[in-house]
Structure formats: structure tokens, C-alpha cells
Amino acid sequence: MRFAVLLAAGFLTVPILSAQRSVPSDGQWLIESADHSGRVQLIIRYGEGRHSSNWGRTVPLSDLVGLSADDMGGSGATVHFKIVRSAGTLTCEGWFAGGRGSGHFTYQPNPDFQAELAKRGINAPTAWEQFQMTMADVGLELVDELQRQGYARPTAGELARMATHGVDLEYVRDIGARGYHLKDAASLVRMRDHGVDREFIESLDRAGYKNLSAEALVRMRDHGVDPEFLASLDRAGYKNLGTEDLVRLRDHGVDGDYIAAMKEAGYAPSNPEELVASRDHGVDPTYIRSLKEVGYERLSLAELRRARDHGVTRAFIQLVKARGYGTPSIDEVIRLRDRGLD
């Protein structure tokens, strides 16, 4: 996962005002090769006790100024490099062996950062907010991208919140390239928190769901409307449903397998509510077959739901027939059941 944020007791788990946090002057770094060519997995650790934090993600090797692939392949030689970002710089020292390295860094805020934000109409961040932005590489490029895409001008606090929630330049560009310009930083954070990423949006695009609202994307993600679920509905012949229909079907356990089995049993309603109601009332292919076996082959879904609700089973119908009632209508069977025939 591209945005792998690793938190032991970090930004998001300690409800302390940013102004109360002391900015670490140093910490530890760990690096190893990633699966992607030219990228490495970078983890940064800093702080102490309950304020200790881990921050990690996959970054291009080129982001580590002064570190080469040859350095990473070394066997114990000391390395020096820098992680230079708009808000500040981490100066790193350590060693590598077999493609894995570790060491320490010192943090230096960029003294010009606040002035650059001011030029863009953004208030000065606190020292802690500026440190958060340095860690997550949230800086001037992101501010300029937000302006280009028509977002409301964020405050320094909102930028820091974006930093701690994984909303960076790459994320904003990714969703913007797919037609999503959400107008405010809070919507970006909400989408990111709920796992709405490029891959999820692409899966919806392929299924024909484009230009949705931020709220619709979040609801679909939260309720498990994922590529597999959409594909199962497609195979069952249910396409172009509204987003609320999709959420409702998913919440009530109506997937492609259930629909296909109901079709095989002779029921293929076009209205999703019919499927939801039948699923909720326990009307499934097994129940339908059990009533067919005792002569009730042409019941509507509404009749099947009523029968199920009143406890009408194959065994009860067999009892009714054994008592000499023949094959009464399903309404008569329900009345007998309600009267307590046993």
C-alpha cells in the first residue's frame, strides 16, 4: 500500500494540541529496498514514551539527497544524506548492509517556509505543525496544487492535519486526475481516512460509477461496495444501480451469488428492494425448494416472505396434508399455522 502510515502512538493516537508538543530535534531512520524500482521503504522514528511515533512510506530513492543504490548495497560503510522538503530538512547519518540501513537524523526547519506560505495567503504554522508537514512532505507544491485545482485556501492547521492523515501531493493529484476536486481540505482528509484511494476510484470507474460525491465514495467504501461486489452483481445481470441501492444491497447481504441462486430458483426481480426484503426475511433458494417439494411452486416473493415470517415450513405443510386438508392456498396454510395447528 503506497501510503503505509505506521503509528505506534503517534500523530493520530495522542489527543494533544499541537502547540503543546515539543518538536524533536533528532530521531532514528530505517531504510530498505521496496518492491518498486527506484523506490525505498523509509521509516522515521522520533519522540519518547507515549509521545513516540513511527512514520513510514515508500519514497523515490531520489528523495534521499546524497544516497545512492551503491551506498545501499554496501557492507557497513558510513553514509550521509539529506531528506529535503519545503517545510524542513532531515540530515541523516548511518550505515547499510545487504540493502538495509539505519541511523540517526537531526531536524532543521526551513526558515523561509513561513514566508512562502504567507505569500500564498496562509497563516504561519506552529513549530509542531511545521514539523508534521516536514515528516509527511506536505509543503508548497501541495499548496500550489490545491490552488490549481480550485480548492479553498487551507490554513496551516489544515495543512498539518492533511499531513498526519496521509493527504499529500500524490494523493491530491491522483484523485484530481480522475475528476475529483473536492473544494476543501476536510473532504480530502475524510476520503483518505476512509480508504478512498486511486485504486478504489479506478475500480468504480471501470464499473461505470464516475463523478460521485465525496460522501458517496466514503459510503461505498465504508459499506464494502468494492470491485469484487460490483463484479458479482454484474455477472448476475444487475448493472447501473444507484449508489444507495448498492450500499443497501451490500448491507443486507445481497450479492451476486444470492441473486444468481434466486434466478436459478425462478425469481429475478428487477427492483433491488424485492431482493433486500427477501434476504431480510430469510427467503433463500433452499427455502423456496423446500416449499416446491410439497406442491407450492408458483408463489410470489411476497407470499414466500409471509410464509417464512409465519413459520411455514415443509414439515408443517406435510402435517397439514396428513390432517386431511389437501393442498390449501398459502394463505390458508398461514392461518392454520397462526392458529397453532401441530
Main features:
342 residues, alpha+beta, seven-stranded antiparallel β-sheet, 43% helix, elongated, disordered N terminus
Runs with pLDDT <50, length 5+?
A: 1-19
Q: What is the CA-CA span between the terminal residues? A: 59 Å
Mean pLDDT: 90
Which range best describes the helical content: under 10%, 10-25%, 25-40%, 40-55%, 55-70% or over 70%?
A: 40-55%
Rounded to an integer, what's the Rg over CA atoms? 30 Å
Overall 3D shape: elongated
In short:
By secondary structure, this protein is α+β, with helices and mostly antiparallel strands.
Describe the structure.
With 342 residues, the protein is an alpha+beta fold. It has helices at residues 69-72, 113-119, 127-136, 140-148, 156-164, 169-177, 185-193, 198-206, 214-222, 227-235, 243-251, 256-264, 272-280, 285-292, 301-309, 314-322, 330-338, and strands spanning 26-33, 39-46, 53-60, 64-65, 75-84, 88-97, 100-109. The chain has a seven-stranded antiparallel sheet. α5 (156-164) runs parallel beside α7, α7 (185-193) runs parallel beside α9 and α10 (227-235) runs parallel beside α12.
What layout of secondary structure does this protein have?
Blueprint: E1 26-33, E2 39-46, E3 53-60, E4 64-65, H1 69-72, E5 75-84, E6 88-97, E7 100-109, H2 113-119, H3 127-136, H4 140-148, H5 156-164, H6 169-177, H7 185-193, H8 198-206, H9 214-222, H10 227-235, H11 243-251, H12 256-264, H13 272-280, H14 285-292, H15 301-309, H16 314-322, H17 330-338
Antiparallel strand pairs: 1-2, 1-7, 2-3, 4-5, 5-6, 6-7
Helix pairs in contact: 3-5, 5-7, 7-9, 10-12
